[in-house]
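Researcher: Let's do a round of design. I'm pasting the structure tokens now; please hold your answer until I've finished.
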């Protein structure tokens, strides 16, 4: 049974404007694939026989953005939603396995589909003409296969990023790679070094959110290792430790699968939390393995890896923080939670607890139940405290730096240090966060000062 295509009215309007001016037009790529998979497409891309100049004439009066026009792409806004329409094109010569320098506009949809990466992405649909599928995309979709359009070796030589795209679709859709496509990826993987870090990052991060991410990382580790060799150092690294029944790599993968796939920060931290272990290994006289300082080492490596991929500031910072503090042992006590909440804030504290959970689930099963119980009790207490008190920081104390100066504390680092001591006393419940009480306490401190 043909799944129901349900394009937004804007798509029908755009197709109709082009076709009534005599230019063939189709919905294409991801929206066709996702509809056939029974998923809601997240956007609708169109393609047309009209050249960019002809498109401009057809769309006169609409809200247009011309940023991609040299490559044949026009963006049209309907109700703040962008729709991309691209002229049928073939790509000019590729340079160094990166994007082509030039494009050439053509009049045949089949030629346009032939330049696309995978058969499942090379289908077009039109409300009257139905599906156009010259490369067997539908068959591959129903057998769950990623297959290059044309010769995989050539296609990956043209654009090496397609290798990561193949792995991303495999992870997200839980599809396999058709054998020749797979072989070409192993053979051509070094080409990934040519790709702009931002493009690698985009595909790698989307892959991490996929339901088959773990299986794909395991199977294609040598491909990922081209860009992130630190991952490969984890594989086969025996921990010689009774808490662990897996090598460092399998432990990392198990932690990854236990982490919420919709939280990229957490997924990255789960994958990277022990990446520094191979560099911190020590075996004691009894042959037991220890990894002193591995959280800090892992944080340093994680930071270097994320920076190599030009990862945006907050994501990088938060991931590295989770890795650095992943070994915190949750204690379901108000004091413990308040201090961590003050330090990390609610979002990061929740993630640290989720990471601790994933870490335990990825270790040997002995003591698991008791450790999970500690974590869950701490998480429940944290929710209560977040709801009742929120995050208490120096800035939220009932006194501030001005008060200290008035009490005669000289301007300088002492002011901050005193406020922090005060904060700790409030967090520990020694003092209430009330102005007069805090001022009295400060006054006592100040008179004791030399
Ligand atoms: P999603 O938007 O979910 O990532 P998509 O298939 O729409 O999926 P896009 O990156 O938006 O992916 O690309 C749109 C279409 O352009 C793809 O379906 C594919 O046909 C084609 N395409 C994208 N990148 C490449 C590439 N590197 N090489 C060849 N064709 C590509
Ligand atoms: Mg898309």
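Researcher: That's everything. Go ahead.
Model: Designed sequence:
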């Amino acid at each position: 049974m043909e799944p129901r295509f349900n394009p937004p009215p804007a798509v029908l309007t755009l197709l109709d404007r082009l076709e009534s001016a005599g230019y063939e037009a189709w919905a294409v790529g991801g929206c066709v694939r996702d509809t056939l998979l029974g998923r809601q497409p997240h956007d609708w891309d169109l393609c047309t026989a009209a050249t960019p100049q002809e498109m401009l004439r057809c769309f006169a009066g609409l809200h247009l953005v011309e940023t991609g026009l040299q490559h044949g792409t026009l963006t049209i806004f309907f109700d703040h939603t962008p729709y991309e329409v691209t002229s049928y094109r073939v790509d000019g010569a590729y340079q160094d396995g990166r994007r082509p320098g030039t494009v050439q506009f053509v009049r045949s949809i089949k030629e346009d589909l032939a330049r696309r990466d995978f058969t499942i992405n090379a289908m077009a649909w039109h409300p009257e003409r139905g599906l156009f599928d010259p490369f067997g995309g539908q068959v591959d979709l129903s057998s769950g296969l990623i297959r290059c359009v044309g010769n995989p070796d050539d296609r990956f030589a043209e654009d090496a990023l397609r290798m990561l795209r193949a792995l991303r679709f495999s992870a997200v859709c839980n599809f396999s790679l058709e054998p020749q496509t797979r072989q070409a990826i192993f053979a051509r993987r070094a080409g990934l070094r040519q790709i702009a870090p931002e493009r690698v990052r985009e595909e790698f991060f989307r892959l991490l959110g996929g339901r088959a991410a773990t299986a794909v990382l395991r199977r294609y580790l040598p491909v990922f290792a081209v860009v992130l060799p630190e991952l490969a150092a984890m594989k086969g690294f025996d921990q010689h430790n009774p808490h662990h029944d897996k090598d460092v790599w399998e432990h990392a993968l198990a932690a990854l699968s236990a982490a919420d796939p919709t939280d990229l920060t957490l997924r990255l931290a789960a994958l990277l939390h022990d990446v520094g272990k191979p560099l911190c290994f020590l075996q004691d006289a009894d042959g037991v393995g220890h990894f002193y300082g591995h959280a800090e080492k892992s944080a340093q490596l994680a930071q270097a890896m994320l920076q190599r991929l030009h990862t945006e500031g907050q994501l990088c910072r938060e991931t590295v923080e989770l890795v650095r503090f992943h070994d915190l042992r949750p204690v379901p006590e108000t004091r413990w939670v308040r201090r961590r909440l003050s330090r990390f804030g609610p979002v990061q504290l929740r993630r640290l607890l989720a990471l601790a959970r994933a870490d335990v689930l990825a270790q040997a099963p002995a003591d698991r139940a008791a450790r999970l119980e500690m974590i869950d009790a701490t998480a429940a207490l944290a929710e209560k405290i977040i709801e009742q008190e929120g995050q208490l920081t120096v800035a939220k104390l009932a006194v501030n730096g001005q008060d200290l100066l008035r009490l005669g504390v000289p301007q300088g680092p002492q002011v901050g240090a005193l406020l922090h001591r005060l904060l700790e006393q409030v967090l520990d419940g020694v003092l209430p966060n009330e102005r007069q009480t805090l001022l009295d306490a400060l006054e006592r401190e100040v008179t004791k000062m030399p």
